[in-house]
Amino acid sequence: MKERIASVSRKTSETDISIQISLDGSGQYDVMTGIGFLDHMLGALATHALFDLNVNAVGDLHIDAHHTIEDVGIVLGQAINQAAGDRSGIMRVGHAYVPMDESLGFVALDFSGRPYTVFQAQWATPAIGQFPTDLVQHFFESVAVHARITLHARVEGCNDHHMAEALFKALARALRMALAFDDRRSGIPSTKGSLG
Predict the structure, then answer these.
(1) N or C, fewer C-beta in 10 Å, the chain?
(2) What does pTM read for this prediction?
(3) Cα 17 to the chain's mean position, in Å?
(4) What is the structure's pLDDT at 12?
């Protein structure tokens, strides 16, 4: 079986980001973005997806967190897309419910090659630490576009930290399911013979 790994870098006038990922890892991670809650969520993502993940991001945090969060999402999506290759033999579709105390997050996704996001969340506060709550949706959209997946996400609850964490863990488990190999399939999981 070919190793499903990728290394992607992106440097602009706003951010300098490098990500290494192994889709068939054991959940080891080393993450440093300068945004504590983003580091926490990426660690949860690696742990629950069983990805090995290294993220190093330097951004213009003296302005705000927007560019760093957005660009980490872009590079993470690109890394997942590159590591997944042509998607031969994978389950393709994944979903997960994850409870986090009073909150319940749900993510369903399809490695369809057709990026699309539906996101439903109502936040009570403007930010979790230095992570603006409106950027949770933007992060998910950035990952979906650049990983070329169709993504539906929704969460209920009353504690923004728990709600965001439930969503990230649900994303992780849905990715793990979709990227798992189907032992009954050898080719592209599509009636068209290709994805996209």
Answers:
(1) N
(2) 0.95
(3) 15
(4) 97
